[in-house]
Amino acid sequence: MSAQQIDNSETAFKEKLEQEQNQFMKDLKEYDAQYQYIITYNNFEKIMDYTQKAYALNKALEDAEEAVEKFHTRETLFGQKELTEYPDLARLKADF
Asked: What letter does residue 21 receive in the DSSP assignment?
């Protein structure tokens, strides 16, 4: 594999990482919207629906933490010194 091919592959992988991170940020905003909805629950007739949404959000946040770990691993492989931070995820985990 030539140096140019390696550079092209690295560029492609970096672009894919950036696209995935951008989508991840959109997902975090959706998780925040779900959290805001859950904390306003006051209709006990819908408690089962609320419970299902809460469990689904919890699972999504756990998956998000795993995604961050994967992003950080890939960033490290690319020699990135400062890993991307996701304060929205940390806030959601703390609040939820």
From this structure: H
> C-alpha angle with apex 34: 87 to 51, nearest 5 degrees?
120
Q: Burial, 30: exposed, middle or buried (Cβ in 10 Å; 0-12, 13-18, 19+)?
A: exposed
Q: How far is CA 96 from the centre of its chain?
A: 15
- Tens of pLDDT, residue by residue over 27-61, are 999 999 998 888 887 777 777 888 898 999 999 99
In the chain, what are the domain boundaries? 3-95
The three-point CA angle 53-71-20 to 5° equals: 70
| Angle at 66 (CA atoms; ends 61, 71), nearest 5 degrees | 120
